[in-house]
Amino acid sequence: MHSFKIGDLKVKLPIIQGGMGVGVSLSGLAAAVANEGGIGVISAAAIGMHEPDYVKNFHEANKRGLRKEIRKAKSLSRGVIGLNVMMALTDHEELIRVAIEEKIDVIFIGAGLPLKIPAIIADAGLSGHHTKLVPKVSSAKAAGLIFRYWASRYNFVPDAVVVEGPMAGGHLGFKKDQVGENRVTIRFLVEETVNTIRPFETTFNKEIPVIAGGGLQTGKDIYDIMQAGAKGVKIGTRFVTTHECDADIEYKKAYLSAKKEDIVIIDSPVGLPGRVVKNKFVEQIMNGEAKPFKCPWKCLSTCNYKEAPFCIAKALFNSAKGKMEEGFAFAGANAYMADKIVSVAEVINELVTAHDHEVLLHKISAIRPMRFHSSKAISL
Length: 380
Prior knowledge:
The structure is a single chain. The protein has two domains: 4-247 and 350-363, Aldolase class I (TIM Barrel), CATH 3.20.20.70; 254-330, no CATH class. The protein is built from 13 helices and 14 strands. The protein has helices at 27-35, 58-76, 92-101, 117-123, 140-154, 186-204, 219-227, 237-240, 249-256, 280-286, 312-320, 344-367, 375-379, and strands at residues 4-6, 9-11, 15-17, 39-43, 80-86, 106-110, 132-137, 161-164, 170-171, 210-213, 232-235, 263-267, 273-277, 329-330. It has an eight-stranded parallel beta sheet with strand order 3-11-10-8-7-6-5-4. Strands 9, 12, 13 and 14 form a four-stranded antiparallel beta sheet that branches. α1 runs parallel beside α2, α2 (58-76) packs parallel to α3 and α7 crosses α12.
């Protein structure tokens, strides 16, 4: 499995650990993945909930908590560390500024179109030269819109783009009826996005890797999607059931005990469908039961907290702390395949070994037909 580059940033393995909030991927998981040669990613979503004053001072707690996690990850690893930020967060601008100030390597920006992010960075007087900016999209159309806007307004384009398919975990950039059996494939999305981005590579004379995410579970999955043009893969679900994952053991056990039919889609207060592991809490909200709450933070711009049946931030924070009866686990479509807790190193090794095996099989299959062109074969 080859290294790849995002701008001038060289990454040993083309494996990006998905940023999973709230409290699922923090410095522990990110550093472990970075130490194995991939990109370890901290999730910024409600990261301040781990601070003692988060109830009264949520946004300041978020900034403080983010600085702590970035610095801790860097102290644990000399590898590549990234941050996942949702545009839907009301303080996403502040969190992006903090990350750039801390010289994080990569910022992945999703849950919205980051059209004005370059201007915000420039207005703040920050140099984003070190930090790479990578939008996450669910279609080539969205990617094209971002690239055209950045090119025309700022005369530069993103350093890479993540295209996330409908089999991903957590919040999905698709309508609810687009994530079922008739969903568009990640291979189609990658091929379409590669074609959309290619003219910008020519215009700006730079390679812009397309990174694929959503439902990728095995080394074969990685091999197949790279044949479609992806230069890297984003994987979240596989890293949840690792020792280094920052979530509580009860959160991980939700994966281990899940059956295929337990992976379901819910309506999130964010305004997007979300893929989760079904439990009693999920059954209750799917049956229309409300979980009354007060919102002291207004952490999500797309959440109508006055009408929302439950607080998504609190539910996710509870589950990450092991209180599964008061929350639920986000999960990719293949989360039910997890059967044990392993190390990050074991996950990476399995993915790389299986991928390299697929490469070998491909080479063998390409060589075999040539045997029939020997002189003996022809004379027969």
